TrEMBL record:
Pfam family for this entry, one: Lactamase_B_2
CDD domains on file: RNaseZ_short-form-like_MBL-fold
GO MF entries: 3'-tRNA processing endoribonuclease activity
Alphabetical list of PANTHER family matching this protein: METALLO-HYDROLASE YHFI-RELATED, ZINC PHOSPHODIESTERASE ELAC PROTEIN 1
Listed name of the protein: MBL fold metallo-hydrolase
Organism: Streptomyces fructofermentans
Amino acid sequence: MPLTLTTLGTASPHPRPGRPCSGYLVSGGGAEVWVDAGPGTFAELQRHTDPARLTAIWISHLHADHCADLLAAVYGLAYGGLTPAEPVAVYAPAGCGRRIAGFLGRSDTGFLDPFVEFRTLEDGHEARLGGLVLTSRAVVHDTEAYGLRAECGGKVLAYSGDTGPCEPLAELARDADLFLCEADIDRHREGEQVHLTPEDAGAYAREARAGELLVTHVGPTLTPEAATDRAAAAFGGRASTAREGDVRTV
């Protein structure tokens, strides 16, 4: 299976009609991984695969626009007839499982063990899922957050998650065939470095020598098209806009 990226949602910071928040399906090497579970993406995921067949779920950070639909997924796996043959691994920052259990009125996650297995991310964490290798790198945000590097069959997909400018981002995206990168804000506010501008996204793609830049997670002060144009100018290479329902082979 080649390395493919399916865009489930791109909106920030809340879902909009026809545009869920951040979520992607990464497939390759016999594995299927739901990357980020923003509101609205669990329904979109079901257009492309059976959630019970997921190899893993990977969550970049615990802000609601990247993880809230994990609750819907867990509820579906546990009570909605989507029971997996074995527990689905959920790679996420510490405390993710407790949040889900608390939402369901429980103080621990043990009752979810037949359905999901929570595994804590850390900088440099590596998961080998069949022929797909996922490597997590800590990035700078206003909470614990990770970017992702997915490798399969000699192809590389890099995903920024939510991040401000930081050196690990360039390392994460180094020589990636496709760099999926946020461009949330129009400009930086003084003293705040928790998201990227389109120019930041383009500059990091250029520094990393990425093959293609795919712009996502564009906030309400920009249009996706305008953000992509600005990022492309800074990149000087091929850039496009992530759109819901798009499926591309890396």
